[in-house]
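Purpose: get a first structural picture of the assembly so the mutagenesis plan has something to point at.
Setup: three entries, given in the order below. No constraints added.
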Amino acid sequence: MYCDKVIELLKELERSREDTIPPYNNDGINHVLSEMKTLDAEIIDLLRTQKDNLPLDAIRLRRAAIERNKRCLLTYIWTRIQRLKEMRWEIGAILPSDVRQNLSQSEIEWFNNYCKTLVSYMKTIGPDTGLNLTQDTKPPKSLYTEVRSLVDAGKLELESGEVLILRKNSQYMLSRSQAEPLIRQGVLEQVRQ
Amino acid sequence: MMHPAEIEYMAENEIIQIVPTFNHASHVHLICGSYGPFRAGLPLNVPIWVALNLRQKKTCRILAPDWMAVDKLQERLEEEKASKFFTQLPTNFYLEITQMLLTVASEDIPQGNDIKTAVKDLWDLRIAKLRSSVDLFVKEGRVQASLNHLTPMEINSVRPIFPDTLDALMTLHEHINSSDDREDSSQSSVATPSSSTSFSLSL
Amino acid sequence: MYRNIKPHYFSIDAIMAAQEKIQCSFIKKVECVDFLDSFNPEKDDEESDPKIELPLWMIQVFLAGKSIQFDMPKAYNEIYRDVLTADANVVDLFKLCKHFYLFGKFLSQLEHREAYEVRRTLIQTFIDRFKQTMDWAQNIDDNLPCFNRLDCLERLIFNDARVAQQHLNTYLTEGSGQMEIAAMILNYRKRKMHESRVLE
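Result (structure tokens, whole complex):
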């Protein structure tokens, strides 16, 4: 029946967890696009061959199917973009590799552009260096915080210019702004007070 | 929806009394006002966040606010039980202030555990009241409610459910567009009386 | 993340609700649609008209051309309406129909003699179940069995209420100021660990 394929695409999205992005289903999308083209051709054919006694129901049904296919395809793309946008705010500009390899070329381009736009907007806030909106999403309690490294993360250049070597299970005192992104990425953990 | 940490941040601006252990003759000028002078042993008013910072550096003792005493809280609790409506509390941030002071300065506050229990009882009682009034509001299909004297944290506890629920109800009441023509949607949202549902909180 | 409980153009729930099947029969012959050929009405006997199940969005098309009549799906017929009126709280709504409210809402907007009754039942059912949904969301421990009985609209409300309740509980037990690993990364790691365990 019409639109079955596109519903399969949306079910794929529904089944996946909201914090992941399943592989971009190129074949599925092409299949739906060609279904739309066929429907369109059929409508034109009906209009031409049955001019005297137009089968209105048949034409309406095909038109509705085209519209529905379009809505579902757009929803498929829109939902994925919403998730991608959320990831930018949650984990930053560097996506986990298995998310990245599930994206289409246009999605990767979109993501890069989104990151650029966001950064250039944040630069314009305030008088000088701008404001990182992804930081301190909850009110900070102190300027510095004690953290423990969960992995051998290697070199970290501090805001003072000093270089710190992060070793697994060692504790450090870091500025909150420097610690927060690393905590969110799971490299460090905050030592509970 | 606000995160509890954000409401706590608002609570940190409330004024509280401390007894400093140091001297600082001039005022300290802050965005929220000027505070001082600090004289060892003499109580003065400062915002809670200042108090907590000084207390963590062990340069002051915090004086618990008047209401933060077991007998006072018990009175409040009885009053709340007796009243059909929400009673007015001495502060809009009773839960957060108790939480912050008892975490940082438990030694300064006598009967800390009993205070914690009494505050929790008060909170539970008021939240139960709030939830049943929300339920009543929805059941009776009311369009307006006045919930005086609720605190921000209490309001926040129903904030995520309430607008969603009213939206869902409105969806069921009014005509909505199920077809795939986006152009239709502007014509199809015929307003029904229920779609003008408004909810006002007078605080 | 964009959240809107009301159905909108990009809402998967609304799309899926319009995909739910309805049993119907044709009162007029529909030409030039292959998969309907064997379901066209027989002239003399209306009772014996072959029935077919079509998704709601197709029913809408044929209703516009007055070519079709449909039966109210089971979940919305008189028997179930009575059950819901008696005590909506005991019904496993998800099992009855995943998109109970949205599909019902769409149905009630179609031309059918029971449409008004359906609409009334939807509103009353939602109101009757509201307190239960709210209470379940507040008691966080092991509420999966409860969650499973909610329709997809109730689930949205439930999930929001539960996230807020979790924030509050964490605040009350651990205080604020703690920075946490992003939930996405945490889940990602859990999945990786699970995958590698399965591979071993």
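The domain at 73-200 of chain C is CATH 1.20.58.2050 (Methane Monooxygenase Hydroxylase; Chain G, domain 1).
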